[in-house]
Amino acid sequence: MEEKVSSYKFPIRTFACDFSERATLPVMGNFVLEAASLHSNEGNFGHKQISKDNVTWVLSRLSIEMYEYSFCGENLTVQTWIEKVDQFFTQRCCRFTDSNGKVTGFARSIWVAMDIKTRRPLDIRKWRPDLANHVTDEIACPIEKYAIIFPVNKVEPVMNYKIRYMDIDINHHMNSIKYIEHTINIFDLSFFREKIIHRLDIVYLAEGLVKDKLELYMQDVSEEEYLIDFKKEGKSICRCRVVWTPIPPGNEVVQ
Length: 255
What we know:
CATH architecture of the largest domain: Roll
Strand order of the largest sheet: 1-3-4-5-2-7-10-9-8-6
CATH superfamily of the largest domain: Hotdog Thioesterase
CATH class of the largest domain: Alpha Beta
Number of strands: 10
Helix content: 10-25%
Strand content: 35-45%
Number of domains: 2
Number of helices: 5
Structural class: alpha+beta
Order of helices and strands: EHHEEEEHEHHEEEE
């Protein structure tokens, strides 16, 4: 029986960690997506079930706020629940806890139910009115809601990228986590030796398809905050905000 709040345990494997032996931000994003997939499958509104209606879930926005990152060999528990169902969006939250039960972060995400044939969003309340029964406020998600991410108006990109096979997901467009990977690859290794990414906000504006040529632009708002704008033919298809913070005590880089 599907619970309104479900918990999933993920072991932190070596392949999920960087040189510091900590889980990376893209891995945390993948945990959010996997927990959402497992929970929706249990509720009979997962990918396999809704594909029979020629519908798929598409991630529209994602915010992840981390206080600490788990180390290799630890177990991370991800709790997930639906916070709200609107006409065209569902809002889903996650809470991360370590092996000792300590809360290490939260995530918020917004999902669109997209018609596979028309590539247009559906009216969720008409398509699946039963989804409102899955909403709960049993757990609070205390992090701020999605930040407005302004366009970056720079002349020269910091990176050029052509979308390839390994970037594409089951919806035949660029995987949402690949945008996060390319975003953090912009930063010099020294950032990761001295800081952790405390907050990521990302908004997906249009689809990136295989062979599309992307230009990535970056603007520093402060020493801690940066904006990244993915553009295709001069138009934004994804924007990202990254906020860094010093590595907390006890979470230092392993030598």
